[in-house]
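Retry 2 of 3 after timeout on previous attempt. Resubmitting structure tokens to design endpoint.
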């Protein structure tokens, strides 16, 4: 069921801007164009039909593109159900011709699903999904953002908001990975409001697997679920805050930040859910593990919770986007705010009316015990990797030769693993003996629960390698699973 969200986004925008001390003026507010996408193909220029990329350019430039009408002031792009895969390679370009979608215009733009059918924008690993660098407001409504991959040291693989205001409602950001930077799901350098949305299954080598905010950033989350994201994705002690990490301002209302991971090798260095400065203001917010030295708060009203939120797996629980539904016995039920400024929205991310019980549920989803969804079997909502050696415990190798280390990666969790990969780790004395003979990391994609995938990583034995036993590690990671390591021994003769 599609929600009528414009008034709610408008009210939230006013709130966020008052916090930020900003004023966005749209000089052409009395003018608007509706641009209707009619193809899932990724195309530019005057190619026939109206693709999503062409529609964004038409709105930005106020100039017709292919079959897309020209933008005019505060535009709306309506997108029918389907998967819109970005297929034109190229990163670093910012004029919307290759790679990610780029919104650069100064006017307001809304990109929204035109029906109840699912709309997925999938970068398919070629770049991030979307970059907002315009001075105006960009609103996304009832859309899934997934498949963003950034290999350079750049932030925001799902969405980068570098200027202006970004407003998300009914949006799920999932399966995006910052391979060298921060903000696997979202990176914010300006102002963002997020309502009735889910940030899940994203990862970053650095800080903020789900959300990352710069020092100048301002963010407001209202009825949001941040769950199953990972920082320090490759276990190199390079990031904190698997859920959220920000040195800017973050206001949260009726929000879940839990079940996230920090894959740092040493437990003492792990900051799984929250890495914030003193401008974090949570209200009616459940934080799974509020690391006291890292999850700093400007003010705690005494309405916040900690612990396991007891959420089910990310999946189709009704509505146009995937969500996590509270399980029976969840501490999120009926404990949301009841008066301003803590009021929950009138519906949840799926369009289910709030409240269904004695009060609103915390997070993006309101459990409907008699209707849309009633999960009864507890699950972890996480993938869990198990690595197993294939072949002998010790691999024989000769100086100057090559060997292949083989393992099987099995998902023993109850949710498909996202962005699964296996990487070679060579440390200490082993560096003088061996080096990678190809790519250090191999991507395995998604592994379904109970299934396995085999992988082999090649090593080159140095001619100068000392004889004897050498040990390296293979590290398996996924966006929604803890890192797992297995030692591999070589006998060099």
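Retry 2 succeeded. Sequence:
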């Amino acid at each position: 069921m599609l929600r009528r969200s414009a008034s709610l986004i408008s009210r939230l925008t006013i709130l966020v801007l008052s916090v930020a001390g900003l004023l966005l003026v749209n000089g052409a507010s009395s003018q608007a164009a509706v641009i209707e996408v009619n193809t899932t193909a990724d195309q530019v220029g005057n190619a026939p039909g109206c693709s999503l990329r062409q529609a964004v350019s038409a709105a930005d430039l106020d100039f017709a593109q292919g079959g897309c009408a020209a933008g005019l002031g505060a535009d709306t792009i309506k997108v029918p159900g389907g998967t819109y895969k970005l297929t034109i390679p190229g990163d670093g370009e910012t004029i919307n011709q290759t790679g990610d979608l780029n919104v650069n215009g100064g006017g307001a733009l809304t990109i929204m699903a035109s029906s109840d059918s699912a709309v997925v924008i999938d970068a398919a690993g070629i770049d991030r999904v979307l970059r907002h660098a315009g001075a105006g407001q960009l609103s996304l409504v009832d859309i899934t953002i997934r498949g963003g991959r950034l290999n350079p040291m750049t932030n925001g693989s799902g969405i980068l908001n570098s200027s202006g205001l970004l407003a998300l409602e009914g949006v799920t950001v999932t399966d995006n990975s910052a391979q060298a930077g921060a903000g696997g799901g979202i990176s914010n350098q300006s102002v963002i409001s997020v309502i009735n949305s889910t940030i899940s299954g994203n990862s970053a080598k650095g800080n903020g697997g789900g959300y990352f905010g710069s020092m100048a950033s301002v963010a407001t989350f209202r009825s949001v679920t941040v769950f199953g994201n990972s920082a320090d994705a490759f276990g190199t002690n390079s990031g904190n805050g698997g859920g959220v990490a920000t040195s800017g301002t973050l206001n949260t209302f009726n929000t879940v930040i839990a079940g996230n991971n920090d894959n740092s090798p040493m437990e003492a260095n792990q900051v799984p859910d929250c890495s914030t400065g003193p401008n974090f203001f949570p209200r009616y917010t459940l934080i799974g593990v509020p690391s006291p030295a890292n999850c700093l708060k400007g003010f705690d009203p005494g309405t916040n919770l900690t612990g396991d939120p007891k959420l089910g797996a990310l999946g189709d629980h009704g509505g146009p986007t995937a969500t996590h539904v509270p399980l029976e016995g969840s501490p999120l039920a009926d404990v949301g705010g009841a008066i301003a400024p803590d009021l929950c929205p009138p519906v949840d991310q799926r369009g289910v009316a709030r409240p269904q019980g004695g009060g609103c549920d915390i997070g993006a989803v309101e459990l409907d015990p008699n209707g849309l969804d009633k999960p009864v079997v507890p699950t972890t909502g996480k993938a869990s990797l198990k690595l197993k050696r294939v072949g002998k415990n010790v691999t024989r190798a000769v100086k100057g030769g090559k060997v292949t280390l083989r393992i099987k990666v099995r998902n023993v969790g109850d949710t498909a693993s996202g962005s699964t990969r296996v990487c070679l780790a060579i440390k200490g004395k082993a560096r003088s003996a061996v080096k990678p003979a190809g790519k250090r990391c191999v991507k395995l994609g998604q592994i379904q629960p109970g299934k396995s995938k085999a992988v082999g990583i090649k090593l080159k034995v140095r001619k100068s390698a000392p004889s004897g036993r050498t040990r390296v590690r293979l590290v398996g990671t996924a966006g929604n699973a803890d890192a797992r390591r297995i030692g591999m021994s070589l006998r060099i003769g």
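Attempt log closed. Confidence is low (pLDDT under 50) at residues 1-29, 374-379.
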